[in-house]
Amino acid sequence: MVALRCRGVVVSAVVATAGIYGWTLDLQAHGRSAAALNMSDMGMSDIGKYWSFPVLQASGLVGLIFAYVSVVLGLQQSGRMARRSPTTYRLINQIHRQTSLTVIGLVLVHMTATVYDAMGNSWQTVLVPGAVAATGWPEAVWGFNAGIVAFYTLLLVAPTFYFRSTIGVRRWRFLHRFVLVFYGLSVWHTLILGLDVSYYAWIRPTLWLAQIPLLAMLIARVRGVAHSRTARPIAAGGRYSVIAVSGAAIVAVLLIVATGNSGFIHTV
Asked: Based on CB atoms within 10 Å of each CB, which residue in 8, 88, 132, 241 is the most buried?
């Protein structure tokens, strides 16, 4: 049953990516996609030339959604859950791992599609920070850099699960927290470079509001650890700082959306 559900994660990612790809491809072929409208002088309706652009859009969007789900599952897990319901804990852990591996696959597809997007990109521009400026698109440097650093963070952190016995569980847990850095940079990358983000007005507010549950779960998770009897004073102080920053971030997100300023990060 667990294996079946884990395979379902991969299947759902493939189906979602294929569906969004087909929809975006059709819009682009008729000059109605966000990319075609935002870059009308590029002739994006030439699918023979720009065939990979819908691929990078679909894989990027689905990758971000699955990264969100992976973070939710990760924050939901705790030692308390393992004690109360070992079966549920194992199930969530298996799905969490499969979702994380699926995210890695989608990121690799996204990067490969970017190399072949006919915009002048290469493996250098998707792997070397700042290299995209050489393509005549210096405004995109920050967006590309966010994605590149996110990729390297994921590449370094994700495999540590399989080396827990070698590096120790405590070190693994510390390194695993950097997954949040990957996710945060991925969101930033999307806000800067996501053409759909600028075209569909509802996406930005939705993207901002979607972070509130994650921040609330982070507060609950960190708060539980900070209150534990084994928490060291210095470590507890750091955790309370995380709680304060996360609480402030929730307030900031609500203000951003309520005031209509969710587009303050300009799409290039």
From this structure: 132
The answer to whether the beta carbons of residues 187 and 207 sit under 8 Å apart is yes
Q: How far is the C-alpha of 63 from the C-alpha of 183, rounded, in Å?
A: 10
pLDDT tens sequence for the chain (268 residues): 555 566 789 999 999 999 999 999 999 999 999 988 888 888 999 999 999 999 999 999 999 999 999 999 999 876 566 567 777 788 888 899 999 999 999 999 999 999 999 988 999 999 999 999 998 888 899 999 999 999 999 999 988 888 888 888 888 888 888 999 999 999 999 999 988 888 888 999 999 999 999 999 999 988 877 655 555 655 667 888 999 999 999 999 999 999 999 988 888 8
What's the first-to-final CA gap in the chain, in angstroms? 45
Residue 1 CA to residue 6 CA, distance in Å, equals 9
pTM value is 0.92
CB neighbour class for 34 (10 Å; exposed up to 12, middle 13-18, buried from 19): buried
Is residue 107 within a helix (H) or strand (E), and if so which, with residue range?
helix 86-115
